[in-house]
Every structure is written in structure tokens, then in C-alpha cells.
Amino acid sequence: MIDQISTEGTFFPVTEIDLPGTIDGGQSFRWHAIEGDGGSPDLVGYRGVVGRSVLEVRAAGGGLSVMAVSGEPADVGTIRSYLGLEDDLVGLRTKYANDPGLGPALYDYLGLRLLKQDPWECLCGFICSATSNVPRIKLNMGVLASNYGERIGPEPGDFAFPGPEAVAAAGEQAARDLAWGFRARYLEGAAIAVASGKFALEQLLDMSYEEARDALVTLDGIGPKIADCVLAFSFQKGEAFPVDRWVRRAMEEWYGASEKMSNDAIGQMARDRFGEDAAYAQQYLFHRQRLAARD
């Protein structure tokens, strides 16, 4: 019998978890903060949709409490994997203790984990990310779900994400009407390719990192950075290393990357250094550099 997430809360023992950094730090875009009672601004947890399940996730003593609040039952193993709870962060800290950039980040930002999301929703989220920001991406993804997905709970965000068939049928203009802008064309193109079977998204799981990346960039509007984001945050390709301005600055500051190097060259430099830990290295370097800029 498959264990399912309880409606009263299933406890996951885990020594380290950074919920805001993991769930609301730019990997996924359909989790929303739960605030305290009486309008208190204190963060209590997050509410979001995984597959066809509406979940609430809260920190609890020595771990996490995950509650199924609406929609279909959620499998405990699926949610454990989704949240990256099986990943060995202690081992990473030990391995990179003397690394100039990653070492301090692993010690300063305990519990930041890589999500393992639904491939189609993750692909759409990062198509939407082109020349955008997290609040806008969350808005765009939310209205796409609420207009073309199925309602599975009472709250405004409680919608299953629409599959490629529904997005393809809606078409480019529908996405433009939802303020997706120039990205609407790329969304429609990806939806048609996946819905028709011309692009077998799930098969990327069985490919090497290089094969999967080469396949993704054949889709119109998918460049190396978006491809690496999808491979890191959905397909568990540890070699993926998305390079944005924050990661680029980190690689220049701590690893001697030249200002003249291309983003592709910086990504390869990171893969040469971190191997299959590159995706985790990217998230911690991104987190460290971005938060340092706020201080």
C-alpha cells in the first residue's frame, strides 16, 4: 500500500530545510506564503499545488509537516522527492568545505534544496522567466492555471496546472491576453510539440545531461539558461548550471572567470569543477550572491 499525505499533516523528519529559499527562491512559481493568524506578517508556511494535490507545508520541530488540504491524494514518496529531502547536504558541506565560494554558502544557508518538479509545469515556468522576475512569473503562471487548469480547491491558487493539450488548444493569443507577451509564442510552440508527441518531454529523464540539453534547445525560445533551469529543477541533471548575472558574478569573484567568457564557457567551467554537484552549486552560489547584494 502506498503511503499518502495525511489531511491532518504528515511529518517528514529532516535536520535542515530552508523553506523560503527552496520553495519561494526562484525554482518554482506556484507556492504562496501562509501568514500568521489575525493578519500577522509572520511566515507560517506555504500553500501550493503538486500535480493534482493542494498541499500546505510548514516547518515543524525537527522537520516538516505536509498537509493535504484539497484535490487528489499525494504520495509520501513523491513529496519527499519533490522537496529534495533525500539529498545529502551534509555530504556536500564536507566535500566542499574548503571551496572558496560554495563552502561558505553551504554553511551559511543551511537546508536549501533542489526541487524535483513536474517537467511540463517547470518548462512553462522557465519559458515565462525570459526577461522577467519572480513576482511577475508567479502572476503569469497563476493566471494560466486559473484560466485553463482545473480548480481542485477553494483558494485562488488551487488549480491543477493545464497540460500541454489545453495550452496548445488555447493558443498564442490566449497567453498574450494573460500578459505573457512575446513569451506566448514560445509557450504555444512548446505545447504543440509536447502535445503532438513530436517532443517527448519525459524521455529527457533517460538521457545524459548533454543529450537532454541539446534536445531542449531545439524548442523555439529555449536557450541554454532555460534548458539548464528545467534540467536542474525537474529532471535531476546534476551537471546543469544555469548562468545568470548573479551566478556569473559569483564565478568571477570566487573562481577567476573572466568578464570576457561566455555564459556557456562559465557553465562548462562550473561542470569541470563541480561535476554532478553543479546544479546544487549553482543554487547556493546564486543564493549567496543575491543575498549579499541586499546587505
Helix coverage percent: 40-55%
Strand/helix succession = EHEEEEHHHHHHHHHHHH
The rough form would be described as: globular
CATH topology of the domain at 119-233: Endonuclease III, domain 1
Per CATH, the superfamily of the domain at 119-233 is Hypothetical protein, domain 2
User: Number of DSSP strands?
Assistant: 5
Descriptive account of the structure:
With 295 residues, this protein is α+β, with helices and mostly antiparallel strands. It contains 13 helices and five strands. α7 packs antiparallel against α8.
List the helices and strands and how they pair.
Elements: E1 10-13, H1 19-23, E2 31-35, E3 43-50, E4 53-60, E5 63-71, H2 76-82, H3 89-95, H4 102-108, H5 119-127, H6 134-148, H7 164-177, H8 183-196, H9 209-216, H10 224-233, H11 245-255, H12 263-274, H13 278-294
Antiparallel strand pairs: 1-5, 2-3, 3-4, 4-5
Helix pairs in contact: 4-13, 5-10, 7-8, 9-10, 11-13
Key features of this structure:
295 residues, TATA-Binding Protein, 5 strands
Concise overview:
The chain has 295 residues and is α+β, with helices and mostly antiparallel strands. It has 13 helices and five strands.
